[in-house]
Amino acid sequence: MSAIESVLHEPRVFAPAAQTVANATVSGMAAYEALCAEAARDYEGFWARLARETLAWHTPFAKVLDESKAPFYTWFEDGELNASYNCLDRHVEAGHGERVAIIFEADDGAVTRVTYRDLLARVSRFANALKQRGVKKGDRVVIYMPMSIEGIVAMQACARIGATHSVVFGGFSSKSLNERVVDVGAVALVTADEQMRRGKALPLKRIADEALAMGGCDAVHSVIVDRRTGGDIDWIEGRDHWMHELAHAQGETCAPEPVGAEHPLFVLYTSGSTGAPKGVQHSTGGYLLWAAQTLKWTFDWKPDDIFWCTADIGWITGHSYIAYGPLALGATQVVFEGVPTWPDEGRFWQMIEKHKVTLFYTAPTAIRSLIKASDADAAVHPARYDLSSLRILGTVGEPINPEAWIWYYENVGGKRCPIVDTWWQTETGGHMITPLPGATPLVPGSCTLPLPGIMAAIVDETGQDVPNGQGGILVVKRPWPAMIRNVWGQPERYQSGYFPAELGGTLYLAGDGSVRDKDSGYFTIMGRIDDVLNVSGHRLGTMEIESALVANPLVAEAAVVGRPDDTTGEAVVAFVVLKATRPQGDEAVKLANDLRAWVGKEIGPIAKPKDIRFGENLPKTRSGKIMRRLLRSLAKGEAITQDVSTLENPAILDQLG
Ligand code: WTA
After folding, report:
1. How far apart are CA 287 and CA 165, in angstroms?
2. Angle (nearest 5°) at CA 68 between 63 and 72
3. What is the dihedral of CA 359, 362, 368, 370, to 10 degrees?
4. Binding-site residues from annotation
5. Is 581 exposed, middle or buried (0-12, 13-18, 19+ CB in 10 A)?
6. 511 C-alpha to center of ligand 1: Å?
7. Cys staple from 114: which of 28, 88, 102, 540, with CB 3.0 to 4.6 Å?
8. pLDDT digits (tens, 9 = 90+) for 231-285
9. Rounded to 10 degrees, what is the CA torsion of 626, 564, 299, 510?
10. Res. 9 pLDDT band, cuts 50 70 90
11. 393 alpha carbon to ligand 1 midpoint, in Å?
12. Dihedral of CA 324/325/328/333: which sign?
């Protein structure tokens, strides 16, 4: 860990403008510090206050935090609420039924607006349809859908009847989908016939059919299909149903089912350093509180804002900052079906101009690729668009390099808009370490300070605090309401993975390395300390890709590492040993392409290795352990300066370099 040193020598500091401070909900550093002090003084009282102010409770809670079964913490356990009621009904009841909830822009640019009243009716109809199909409270429903109003409706409808949803990103393969359906024990699957990307229709129902045919899915009694394109699909009578037909046969009221605050709202699969993806289980009360509260704080959300988060509902960002947070606040948000580069790389800027977006939240990868595009073609440069509606910019998912930050700040935000670099994870439920736009002076590349109530710290391998300026392991010292509750069906994996005994058993281990600035105490994230890669902000376990490669009949052995990449942050590099002799020349090129396609089919296109190198062997110690640090150096094209004396087969390095 001592190898992690501060890489941040960033002298630029951007203090928030007086006007921004004056209008902000958390106005100035003193206000931020007062909230932190409140949490430090009375931790439970602080969270209880926020939970009462932010959410509507069907049965008020008396208990706040229960640590008796640590690390299986509970929050607001004796309280009851319904997430969908909080996201829809209460706004309509408060007289905001005509407020636009979703401005949906399709791939082809067509725009649909849905008010809170409409959305409530659509969610209620679909909730009734799920009930009619026999889906009950506590059942799991897998949602495998494009970015769509229907996807959000499906999530909210599950929440309304107390079913637990598990959304699977529409880019995942049939095999990945199958594994998730089986692991979560789904009884129903909601999908679409096809999805539209870059003007092209891509199959979803066909992949879902394949996934369900792979076995282990007998519990899935219903497949509900949204008709997005009308493209040709297969149909299994009795099992398959059109979403619109089911919904239209139903009434547009459906009483929300109150659930306990700890009831699992959803399970979302994410990659870890070992084993198959894990189902991160979230609660209802604590999760929803934080999704709403963080949007208010981090983006200083106000009722007039037009919020746009460009994430997909298949990831945690799309859960917290599309499907739940904005709706819980009664916000108006843009939801986008397409991609930032089609019909051209000006799409984001054009949409911000068109919808007068005020709060914009995207990933560093997208920013970096749009920088490149606008350098190459002035027509797609943000300067060509009217972005004056923007008020606050955000980033998420990976570290943002200071150059990209400055470009975003100057060219998109016109030097007016604070950038909130939000550090968080699938497991944390919502933002954890982030600037507050009307308070925190910004330093490019740093996610700055923990939100009030979040006890983030940096420790060494034994769980001891390290001084500022010294790198270490990022942990959270106290439980918080939106934290992961369990790894679905694997409590041991939850306990040992997130609260390892080596750190004392009570610290939440984030899996990232970090350092705090000597003077300001600001956090900078240095990336994962485990075998998890971050490619375009997507988490991928190296183990998962290795298993996919060795599942190919030609492959004997494979090792996967990450390499820094200008656009995607990290790129996947695979070292492969075939059962046959090592291929050379054209044959190696062809085999590499085949294996890339194979990984795309096994996991999904996001996991395809950028670079595949063949060797007769892998660099191993005499005890047979693959020396990954050597592979990382080889992947980067670095000269090997490490000690290779323990290496069984030093000659292999020439083959793989
Ligand atoms: C990384 C995405 C640096 C980090 C919300 C974390 C970040 C992982 C940032 C979680 C950031 C996320 N700066 N790194 N602002 N935000 N990360 O679960 O490595 O898909 O552990 O959640 O992304 O990825 P996940």
Report:
1. 14
2. 95
3. -70
4. 197-200, 317, 397-399, 421-426, 512, 528, 536, 539, 550, 555
5. exposed
6. 10
7. 102
8. 999 999 999 999 999 999 999 999 999 999 999 999 999 998 777 899 999 999 9
9. 20
10. low
11. 17
12. negative
Instruction: State the distance from the centre of ligand 1 to the C-alpha of 427, rounded, in angstroms.
Output: 10
The rounded distance, in Å, linking the Cα atoms of 544 and 554 is 18
- Rounded distance between C-alpha atoms, residue 644 and residue 657, angstroms: 15
CA 352, 121, 161, 44: dihedral to nearest 10 degrees?
A: 50
* Nearest-atom index, ligand 1, CA of 426: 18
Cβ(317) to ligand 1 under 6 A?
yes
Tokens of 469: 């300026």
Which CATH number describes the domain made up of 536-655? 3.30.300.30
Distance CA 220, CA 186 (A): 6
393 neighbors 412 (Cβ within 8 angstroms): yes
Tokens of 529: 């300390």
Alpha carbons 524 and 618: distance in angstroms, whole number? 34
Verify whether ligand 1 is closer than 6 Å to residue 534 (CB atom): yes
Long-range CB pairs of 489-494, under 8 A, 24+ apart, other chains included: 489/183, 489/279, 490/278, 490/279, 491/72, 493/275, 493/278, 494/71, 494/72
CA of 574 to the centre of ligand 1 (A): 23
**What's the pLDDT tens digit per position in 488-526?**
999 999 999 999 999 999 999 999 999 999 999 999 999
Q: With contact defined as beta carbons under 8 Å apart, do 463 and 507 qualify? A: yes
Neighbours of 525 (CB within 10 A): 20
**Which amino acid is present at 413?**
G
Q: Which of 570, 537, 576 is nearest to 554 (CA)?
A: 576
Tokens representing residue 217 in the block: 């899915």
Q: What kind and span of H or E run contains 54?
A: helix 43-54
